TrEMBL record, chain A:
EC numbers, comma separated: 1.5.3.24
Organism of this sequence: Rubellimicrobium roseum
Protein name: Sarcosine oxidase subunit beta
GO molecular function, one term: sarcosine oxidase activity
Family from the record: Belongs to the SoxB family.
Catalytic activity from the UniProt record: sarcosine + O2 + H2O = formaldehyde + glycine + H2O2; sarcosine + (6S)-5,6,7,8-tetrahydrofolate + O2 = (6R)-5,10-methylene-5,6,7,8-tetrahydrofolate + glycine + H2O2
Location within or outside the cell: Cytoplasm
Cofactor(s) required for function per UniProt: FAD; FMN
Keyword Flavoprotein annotated: yes
GO annotation, biological process: tetrahydrofolate metabolic process
Automatic annotation (TrEMBL), chain B:
Source species: Rubellimicrobium roseum
GO MF entries: sarcosine oxidase activity
Protein origin, superkingdom: Bacteria
Signal peptide from the UniProt entry: none
Protein name, as recorded: Sarcosine oxidase subunit delta
Pfam families, per the entry: SoxD (PF04267)
Length: 416, 93, 1002
């Protein structure tokens, strides 16, 4: 069924009886050409592009719970391609371009909204670093602008300019950055994949891999064994425990990142903003809630919840930057489990097991990567070659010393 | 979170700085086993369950502790001085 | 604590038989408000009166105001639904100006004299809201309609559709002004935290307190007693309210008890950490002098008794959202606690015996009850009640209820005229806090409601209605029993329970969720989610509870589904033909009720966002008019302007030239300092530094390069050997803390038996750099010992005395490339020392210099600093590859040798100068070869640090360039695409001044 304004209009007049399931709930078949483990944004996008771009007719997505229930459903919805390093920027810019065409690609309004993302800076050294980064972005064909203090003030007059501990000196603006409706991204990919014949199988947890002579034959699941020629794992947050079933140890730790939303408010913050002197970033959703976040809690965790110190730290950053939010109320906090990698960058790669592929290590930046991650993983699964924009995301990069460390923090996941 | 400091009793985790897996204690020797450094520095078990991990009492007595904590429930099963753990694993000078 | 308590430590005492005021037509007899006093307030600019003890909602209801708000999506007229913090409808903007608080629930806003409130989310007025056109268009605006449309043409989403949606959405409006009030934080410790001061909580608190335990009793309400002050039940032969008053009085008088009204436990965190928000001043127009508005308490509790009661749930039927449709328990609360009748002709629609209780209470106050509609066939009829077996199928009245449509069990339909409808679909135990650590509540068939999971946080014990014990007796008994268990587990002896007599009515409820029919039946009132939306979600396969919630926005409004979640789940269960537990469960996340951002931040805002560290010479620098700059937490002098200097460059150039010509003084206290002592100190340093230190003679300093284990440079600095087993290490300002932590890790975790001790002395010593040709001459006037070149050569160090005996440390090291020293004295003498240096150096041309000049001097000399030591670069990148000794094991040695890190054509530190001396460069510009396109494939590196060299009279820079060492003399473009500029530059040695180091040794 094609979605459109006309269709909504017609259904409204006929009691909405025509709408059908956005995706089927099929029983698993005995075997598929490709199984994607993980029905989050990345897994669903992978399946969608496998079917659409790589003409794969026998694909299943296995999800242990409900689709989009992991980090696709618990993030702060930001999309951007404002990376510094050569290993990252082409990939995220590719993702941005896919975002820009997503509604038309999916026939689903995921509310991609390029409201701009502004990274504030507060010192000369930060300005120099953002100048380097902005130039790197431009060299890669992305967009970037360096704003001075007055330009920032014109944009956001309510920021704390006059009584700040760390006065705002300017910001790096990417106008094409913004937000998207996170749940709708997962649903749109699921619907698009389902329409193209992909079996999305919910409540089907993968418990192990069947591997013989170094080659994967299929997966053991809570709904029985399912054969596969190739298996792609995209279960960020739980990568270590899933890949342990294939005998792998990963350069990843699982950490909890909290996110926050305020009560609904009339529009006050137009774009996305990050504070450069504390842990705080914010945007305002179309419903009016201020959606914000800060640093990860900092300890290994598989619990989808965090603790009070980070809540306070984020609020402090928010009040330092925007003292007008003192009387806005925090409505809800939630936590997601992140694959924090050893250099803060992800992996899309083959593994030591033939036919087993891995996608993970997205840290707290997986949402914006969803389209490109899906596309590049599909490319790798279908062609056995990495996509041109994802060549750096190799699991062996630490052996070679080819880290992609945007923050320069080294092999300590909780600092990325 | 509260960390049961073996010398000081329960202390708020906010006084501590987290490092990670206590396996970081088992540093190979750079001259005799350089091939072990990649796995030492980069690979982690990352269990969903009981995890032994290093916390530094930065706002306190500057002890490094090995805390045994469940990463699913956050329950803490114990904490000892990392120095004692290190000695127990054969580290000395 | 007593101050907060004094005005609220008890339940308000009622004044009976007051005359009915014309201005408060709905005020009846009874209630616990203070009728001897009147309180004036305004709502949408119109004046009203109420009494102390009223909430904004009770006072408006008393005044006959039913319409208080508009719903989120359809802008439907809305009145008050509840009498508590679960309120979804009656949201107002409270106060005005910078103190405006959007989305404030009228049901918990305590009335004070002069209160100002306005309705929100409408245009132009509450009664006539043009945006209610959405309601007429509701057939189009179903759940998730926006995912299916607004896609054509592509550009219109952001330019047209989304801006309209954004403007229509949102609820209240922020003031856009800084919050003028202060907030505080505090820490509390107790044996037992009792959450909720209803019958169960009071009994639990009494039991624990009488046993001698340290007790905190917190309740979100300003009046304590919970349902005891909303019902007419007797306890121990007296009124429930009276018993509550005595219980609170007893507790308040005990030294081991802290009673905290107006305090919400908003979250349950790991290991017995509870977060509480105390609203200290929200019942005043503005905080009293010196008082915060609110306080965020972090409560460390060994046990917590959850006596949070229960919340009543609605029944879905057509047009069940009209002003005048209220929860039955709220109708009783307004009647019994506030002396306010919800209507003049009240109907009820219930599936449990609370309906009859409500009817009796109303009739006892002379309020007409016109119908008690109940779908249960087996109800025990009570004489005198207008029972109607059946269901409510619809309502009438646009801005206020005028009647209900009833379909009797026998199929007869009739219209009943009424102006209020009290609804009860049963009660949900308030188990939200038990789910804050992911323990999903479990369904209990007996009470048709969710109870806490057995996996709820250890030590958090539900009692009373929160545990499904709905009778007063059940609440008192379970509160006493569980509190006794809790304190005995902590080693106290609980006295035998002294339970007062109270009603013990059984739970009689038949699950009943919604009345099928054509109209729209609301499930989530605020977000306008109806049964039809739930059906549509089901039809489109959004059947998982989480999908349902996200697709329809059910339970995502400011009330977080307190009244709607279970109802929505039940409707979905009916549609799927599954039981409620098979369909799913409800989850709760912090905070329990919305919390002001201000209180979460406390005092950490504005200039107090983070502590400010001042250097020992700060006061002196301030006197000299220095301009300061934030360096981490530190404030450092950036430059010292002199009269007549109009730009910072003038000042900085002068400071640089004076230093190179005569002598300059700079406060370098912020550098990290670590004393390292022990017989193995040298060995330890060999392991933590890439280069060797054990061979350093006593009395000498060496530059040290510290790597992370991954081979990347972590920090650099100098370490001085002050004695056989005594070293003093300096770190960069930024890395003082991480380096110390790292060294302790190495010492305790890697080599626990090394004889080495560390202590951070960053704050113990004030340290100054004294640099320039006259440095020795100046220091000779202050240092008591001989510091001639022979006695104290380049890279010497030692303990000396200054000014006739003050102990000091002297290091002959140089960051500037000049003959230079760093001299350290105990911090408290830092101010005196800098003044003495200035006084003594007058005739030597002494000049203070700040961080800008420091930067110029070091770039001229080619020393790396933060911009080069960015955590991504190796020793080899910096041109210091030879410093990494392979003869010994040191942190980072092995991994620094990985193939990609030792590439011949990798990045190398270079110097850069513009070909045209007048050209202006920008740090952060990238290098592109002449004639090549500015694209990533041609990106050869970037400028890290840029300064104007007053010596060379043009800009100079440091940067990283691919294969840089081999490209000396090459010309490139430094491209700054951000400013659309590029400058031709020449690659040169990074040592711009005195490459041979002759000045150092001078």
């Amino acid at each position: 069924m094609k979605f459109s304004g006309w269709r909504v209009f017609r259904e409204a007049l006929t009691g909405h009886r025509g709408w059908t399931a956005n995706w089927r709930d099929p029983d698993p078949k005995p075997a598929y050409d490709i199984i994607v483990v993980g029905g989050g944004g990345h897994g669903l996008a992978t399946a969608f592009y496998l079917a659409k771009e790589f003409e794969q007719a026998s694909v299943a997505v296995l999800e242990k719970g409900w689709i989009g229930g992991g980090n696709a459903g618990r993030n702060t919805t930001i999309i951007r391609s404002n990376y510094l390093l050569d290993g990252n920027e082409p990939f995220y810019e590719f993702s941005m371009k896919l975002w820009e065409g997503l509604e038309q690609d999916l026939n689903y309004n995921a509310m991609v909204s390029q409201r701009g993302i502004l990274n504030l800076f507060h010192t000369d050294a930060q300005r120099d670093a953002y100048t380097r980064r902005g130039n790197a972005m431009l060299l890669h064909g992305a967009d970037a602008e360096l704003l001075d203090r007055d330009q920032v003030r014109t944009m956001y007059p309510f920021l704390n300019f006059d009584h700040a501990r760390f006065p705002i000196k300017g910001g790096l603006l990417q106008r094409r950055g913004g937000t998207a409706r996170h749940d709708a991204v997962a649903w749109g990919y699921a619907r698009g994949a389902d329409m193209r014949g992909v079996d999305i199988i919910q409540n089907c947890g993968v418990t192990g891999f069947r591997i013989e002579n170094g080659k994967v034959l299929g997966v053991e699941t809570t709904r029985g064994y399912i054969g596969a020629k190739k298996v792609g794992v995209a279960v960020a947050g739980n990568s270590s425990r899933v890949m342990a079933a294939a005998g792998m140890r990963l350069p990843i730790e699982s950490h909890v990142l909290q996110a926050f939303v305020s009560e609904g408010l009339k529009p006050v913050i137009d774009g996305v903003m990050t504070f450069g002197a504390g842990h705080f970033y914010v945007s305002q959703s179309d419903k009016g809630g201020l959606v914000f976040g800060g640093d990860i809690d900092g300890y290994n965790s598989y619990a989808q919840r965090g603790n009070l110190p980070v809540i306070e730290d984020v609020a402090e950053g928010g009040m330092a930057l925007m003292p007008m939010i003192g009387r806005a109320r925090l409505l809800r906090t939630w936590g997601g489990v992140m694959d924090m990698s050893m250099d803060g960058s992800p992996f899309i790669d083959r593994t030591g097991v033939e036919g087993l592929y891995f996608n993970g290590g997205w840290c707290y930046g997986g949402f914006k990567a969803t389209p490109a991650s899906g596309y590049c993983f599909a490319h790798l699964l279908a062609t056995d070659r990495p996509h041109a924009t994802a060549t750096a995301y190799r699991l062996d990069r630490f052996k070679r010393g080819a880290m992609i460390d945007e923050k320069g923090q080294g092999a300590q996941p909780n600092l990325h | 979170m509260l960390i049961p400091h073996p010398l000081l009793g329960p202390r708020d985790a906010q006084e501590f700085t987290y490092l990670g897996d206590a396996a970081l204690i088992d540093r190979p020797d750079g001259l005799t086993e350089p091939e072990k450094f990649h796995d030492y520095a980069y690979l982690r078990d990352n269990p969903a369950g009981v995890h032994k991990e290093l916390w530094f009492h930065e706002q306190g007595d500057r002890s490094w502790l090995v805390v045994t904590r469940n990463t699913v429930t956050h329950e803490i099963l114990g904490a000892v001085l990392a120095r004692d753990t290190a000695r127990g694993r054969g580290r000395s000078k | 604590m007593t101050e907060v308590l004094r005005d609220t430590s008890g339940v308000l005492t009622g004044q009976d038989a007051a005359p009915v005021l014309a201005s408060q037509p709905m005020r009846v007899t009874g209630g616990l408000v203070d009728r001897s006093r009147s309180v004036r307030f305004t709502f949408d600019g119109k004046s009203y009166t109420g009494h102390p003890g009223d909430t904004l909602a009770s006072a408006l209801l008393a005044s006959g105001v039913k319409l208080m708000g508009r719903s989120f999506k359809y802008h439907r007229p809305r009145g008050v639904l509840s009498a508590g913090s679960e309120e979804p409808n009656a949201l107002v903007e409270l106060r005005s100006g910078a103190r405006r608080e959007p989305n404030t629930r009228a049901t918990v806003a305590e009335l004070y004299d002069g209160l100002e409130a306005s309705s929100q989310n409408h245009w132009p007025t509450l009664a006539f809201d043009a945006m209610a056109v959405n309601d007429w268009l509701s057939p189009f605006f179903t759940a998730g309609f926006y995912y299916k449309t607004f896609m054509w043409p592509a550009a219109f989403w952001e330019k047209l559709y989304e801006p309209i949606i954004r403007r229509a959405a949102g609820l209240g409006t922020l003031s856009r002004e800084p919050d003028p009030d202060a907030y505080d934080k505090g820490f509390l410790h107790c044996d037992v935290l009792v959450i909720g001061a209803g019958p169960a909580g009071l009994m639990a608190a009494l039991t624990a307190a009488r046993a001698g335990a340290r007790v905190i009793l917190a309740d979100e309400d300003f009046a304590l007693g919970g349902r005891l002050i909303a019902e007419t039940h007797e306890v121990g032969g007296q009124s429930g309210a009276g018993w509550a008053t005595s219980a609170v009085a007893e507790l308040a008088g005990m030294p081991n008890v802290r009673v905290m009204p107006r305090t919400t436990i908003m979250g349950v965190f790991d290991h017995g950490v509870y977060s509480a928000v105390e609203r200290v001043s929200d019942h005043f127009a503005a905080p009293l002098a010196g008082k915060p508005r609110q306080v965020l308490w972090r409560v460390y509790a060994k046990r917590a008794i959850l006596a949070a009661g229960a919340l009543e749930r609605p029944i879905a039927f057509a047009d069940n959202d009209r002003p005048g449709v209220m929860m039955a328990g709220a109708v009783r609360a307004y009647l019994n606690r506030w002396g306010v009748a919800a209507g003049k002709r009240v109907a009820l629609f219930v599936n449990n015996d609370d309906g009859m209780r409500t009817a009796r209470d109303l009739m006892a106050r002379g309020v007409e009850v016109v119908a008690v509609v109940d779908p249960r066939r087996d109800i025990r009829r009570q004489a005198g009640l207008p029972h109607m077996l059946g269901v409510v199928t619809g309502t009438t009245g646009r801005l206020g209820l005028t009647g209900i449509n009833v379909r009797r069990i026998d199929g007869r339909e009739e219209h009943v005229v009424c102006d209020a409808l009290a609804v009860s679909g049963g009660w949900n135990p308030t188990v939200a806090l038990t789910a804050h650590q992911s323990a999903r509540p479990v369904w209990d068939e007996k009470i048709s409601a969710f109870l806490a999971s057995p996996n709820a946080p250890a030590g958090l014990i539900p009692v009373g209605a929160a545990a499904g014990a709905f009778s007063t007796h059940g609440a008192l008994a379970s509160g006493a029993a569980k509190a006794a268990e809790a304190v005995e587990a902590l080693g106290f002896r609980a006295p035998a329970a002294d339970l007062p007599q109270a009603e013990d009515a059984p739970v009689r409820i038949a699950p009943f969720w919604h009345v099928p029919g054509k109209g729209r039946a609301w499930v989530d009132f605020q977000n306008d989610v109806t049964v039809k939306d739930v059906k549509l979600a089901h039809q489109e396969n959004f059947r998982s509870v989480e999908h349902l919630k996200r697709y329809t926005t059910l339970g995502m409004a400011t009330d977080q589904g307190k009244t709607s979640n279970v109802l929505g789940l039940a409707v979905m269960a009916e549609l799927t033909g599954q039981s409620i537990p098979e369909t799913g469960t409800t989850m709760f996340r912090p905070p329990y009720t919305p919390v002001a951002m201000g209180v979460l931040a406390g005092r950490s805002r504005g200039e107090e966002f983070k502590p400010t560290r001042l250097t020992p010479s700060h006061k002196w620098a301030e006197e000299r008019g220095a301009v300061f700059v934030e360096v981490g937490m530190w404030l450092r002098a950036q430059w010292f302007p002199r009269p007549g200097e109009t730009t910072w460059r003038e000042s900085v150039d002068r400071e640089v030239l004076a230093t190179r010509k005569a002598v300059g003084v700079c406060d370098v206290t912020t550098l990290g300092k670590i004393d390292i002592q022990g017989t193995d100190a040298g060995l330890f340093l060999d392991r933590v530094y890439a280069n060797t230190f054990s061979t350093l003679p006593v009395g000498k300093v060496r530059y040290g390069l510290m790597l992370r284990e991954d081979g990347i440079v972590m920090d650099d600095g100098t370490t001085a050997r002050m004695g056989e087993h005594e070293y003093v290490m300096t770190t960069t300002t930024a890395n003082a803390v991480p380096v110390f932590r790292h060294l302790e890790f190495c010492r305790q975790c890697l080599w626990p038996d090394l004889d080495v001790q560390l202590i951070s002395t960053t704050e113990a010593w004030a340290q100054f750099s004294v640099a320039g040709p006259n440095a020795r001459a100046l220091l000779s006037r202050i240092v008591d010992q001989d510091i001639s070149d022979a006695a104290f050569p380049y890279m010497a160090c030692g303990n000396v005395t200054v000014c006739g005996g003050l102990r000091a440390r002297l290091f002959r090291i140089s960051f500037s490339g000049e003959m230079a020293y760093e001299i350290a004295v105990p911090t408290r003498y830092g101010d005196a020392l800098v003044r003495e240096l200035m006084a003594q150096g007058q005739d030597l041309g002494v000049t203070p210099y700040g961080t800008e000049a420091l930067g110029v001097l070091r770039v001229e000399k080619g020393h790396v600093a933060g911009n080069e030591l960015n955590g991504q670069t190796t020793a080899l990148n910096m041109g210091l590859g030879k410093m990494v000794s392979k003869k010994k094991d040191s942190i980072g040695m092995v991994l620094s040798q990985r193939e990609e890190l030792v590439r011949e054509d990798g990045l190398r530190l270079v110097g850069i100068k513009p070909v045209d001396p007048a050209a202006q460069l920008k740090a952060g510009s990238h290098f592109i070869a002449l004639g090549k396109d500015p694209v990533a494939a041609n990106d050869d590196g970037w400028i890290t640090s840029l300064v104007h060299s007053p010596h060379l009279r043009h800009q100079i820079a440091l940067g990283y360039l691919k294969n840089g060492a081999a490209r000396m003399g090459e010309r490139l473009r430094a491209v700054n695409l951000l400013a659309k500029t590029e400058v031709e530059v020449e690659i040169v040695s990074p040592h711009f001044i005195d490459p041979q180091g002759e000045r150092l040794r001078g």
